[in-house]
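Per reviewer request, we include the raw input and output of the structure prediction for the construct analysed in the revised manuscript.
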Amino acid sequence: HFDPGNSQSDMDCGLHCNKCRGKVKEFAWITCCSHFFCDDDGQVLFRDGVSTCPVCNQELSHKYDVIRVNTNPPESYRSMVLAGLMPDVILEIAQRALSFYTFQVTFELVNREHKHSKTVAGMEQAYQALMSQSQAELEKMQLHIRGQNEQLARMQEELHTCQESLSEKSRQHQRLQALYDKMRRSAFLSHDPIGSQSEISFPLATGSRAPGQAAHAPHADSQNINPMFVRTAPSAAPPISKA
């Protein structure tokens, strides 16, 4: 990725091939239109006498429109290459060489910025796609939560209805239980087993016994009567003797 902070240090390490973007280590091919190619690409591009720049399509028809140079010449070459030239020629050559270098640095920065822009555009597209997907998932989850809340509200309403129905059923049960207990007591009180058993056991208690004879109640087990409910018939009054 392009890093503006490191661009100058990269340029200080050497120029880059305008085709493969790799750093040129030793030999390079230079065109009059200020483009720069590594030795491998230059030999492929210009070995058959190609007369067109592969970058800008400029015609390269003259002898020195394309040359192969050593980017790190030996000391002997450096001391002799400009020897014997007039100062104005040396300055012109140096000025053109510096212009070439400046153009290549700018060209490299533009290419890196373009690459960086494409990378940023791709990242923005990926970010937008991720945000859209996340938004869709969020809306789906919100819809699911809304449905669950509605279902919970219905269940709570049904629970409240069931609780009210249970309370009403409990009150009805209590009323019916109280009514049942009341009717049971009334039926028990209206059917007096003691009085009825006395009448059945002693229908002639006042007129069938001999004077002075005590009346005895029949055995409770023979009549299927609970002994605690058996009453002994009252004894008749002794006869009054006549004077």
